[in-house]
């Protein structure tokens, strides 16, 4: 792959950003005014937070945007020294051009330690004349309240299927790809509102063939086909534990999924089962317990089989009704 499509097709203007119309309208108002406060972009991964920050800088500063835009990833440099030295040095440097300020973009700011965030708060106060901060976070609750109160908060939503389809159609046309209808549906299922994941899956599948179908996509993204997961649950609820173990092996071995991937896929599929809501509650409760144990380091095979065993027990209760 000569180029990464996520970067190659990253929108360069606010008007090109899909799925976040309300946010784009507010950012364009700042561009029109020629000024902006400190901003906090909060929301799931792959919804346009970094793209919006870069597009905003491009439209504010024009050709000089690179010299007035500093990007730091807080997951790499998350300690108090980064704020006291590196960020402070950037903030105190005079901007270039007529705007009178530069933009400091802190990606994954929710990974900053509490001490670093406290130091950042003071830096934001002291250098407002020369710098505006844009903080990006997956979880805004991890940003301390004094910083949240000093920023205008923009909440990015997972992208809707139509927005993802529009963006992927644009890439497919530029790359002369043929994406089948089933393939596009698979991309939207894989993405779950994360456009970056969808673009990466499309690029991996396109490396194999110019015609992209659902089989290529599910294997490229290491994602289980929804019908396979549903079959796994229906077999276990039907009481055939050994057959359910075989279906689990297909997901773990043929598709290369991790235990956590399987649990997340099961969680999504439980809601599609034709069982009473009271039983769905019990199943979801046990899925959550299995996920917690996997995150804590338990053996994934034992936990997944225990989860299937619980489904078998619930299935036996359903038959008695």
Give, in order, the helices and strands. HHEHEHEHEHEHEHHEHHHHHH
Structural category is: alpha/beta
Q: What is the CATH level 1 assignment of the largest domain?
A: Alpha Beta
Q: Please count the helical segments.
A: 15
Distance between the termini: 56 Å
Helix content: 55-70%
- What would the CATH topology of the largest domain be? Rossmann fold
Number of domains: 3
Task: Bin the strand percentage.
Answer: 5-15%
CATH superfamily of the largest domain: P-loop containing nucleotide triphosphate hydrolases
Question: How many strands, which pairing sense, and closed or not: the largest β-sheet?
Answer: 5 strands, parallel
| Radius of gyration (Å) | 24 Å
Q: What is the topology, as strand order, of the major beta sheet?
A: 2-3-4-1-5
- What is the number of beta strands? 7
CATH architecture of the largest domain: 3-Layer(aba) Sandwich
In terms of topology, how is this protein built?
Elements (H helix, E strand, L loop, with lengths): L4 H4 L12 H13 L5 E4 L6 H13 L7 E5 L6 H13 L9 E6 L6 H13 L4 E7 L7 H4 L3 E4 L5 H14 L3 E2 L1 H11 L3 H12 L4 E2 L1 H7 L5 H12 L3 H14 L4 H12 L6 H19 L4 H21 L1
Parallel strand pairs: 1-4, 1-5, 2-3, 3-4, 6-7
